[in-house]
Amino acid sequence: MTQPAGQPIVQVDAFTSEPFRGNPAAVCLLAAPRDAGWLQAVAREMNLSETAFLLRRADGFDLRWFTPTIEVPLCGHATLASAHALFEQGAQPPHTAVQFHTRSGVLQARREGDWIALDFPAHSLERGAEPAELLAALGTPAVWKGSSPICHLFELESEAAVRTLTPDFRRLAQASPLAVAITSRATAPAFDFVSRFFAPASGIDEDPVTGAAHCCLGPYWAAKLGKPEVVGYQASARGGVVRVRVAGSGVAPGRLELRGQAVTVMHGTLV
Question: What's the pTM value of the predicted model, to 2 decimals?
């Protein structure tokens, strides 16, 4: 049977080395610009937490991210998935960094063996009195609370409290347009902290593994633990590992490095 011509698309599981774990993202390398309505329709059709769209330019790629309902300003796992797809397909030389032009500025990705390192902005947290409705919707007390440009952050008393939490997603969406991250110290020695991430206002009740959330989680735990590099485990049903380096060689002021693995699970064509 002859395959009809169309738009290639791949699905990549990010922040994992195992298929069907981590966070799935669809990646489209476009041959020509497409309007936002078409991009949103494709993301809605894919029905994943994020679909990434790449368009080659002289100095890298334009990169946009869409949930099934909105375009978002920053996404870590779909950036990791995009870099993985470009390296795997030979669209980017394996030993050179790829440059992405995005709504959050220029981001870079480079291969380090089986891992991909992402140059991302570091987000500071403003400690404050978060809306009482948020804690009511979460249904748990917090030992620390604050906000970043990406999300509200709540540190809970234990890993068990993070893992067993069952939020009221409808109330969360009504309480704030921002997403909510919860976190605690990890009990397993392989990890420094655990987290979960909820974004019902953006059409995602729980995101499996959220790179962008680690733009504030990483600095928060690095400062708290006195370490330049920390390892987080996002304790969703799928689970995933994010390494964060906040200081050291190659990390510029106001930036950090997210590192993760990825695996392609599907190739397809939009007809």
Answer: 0.94
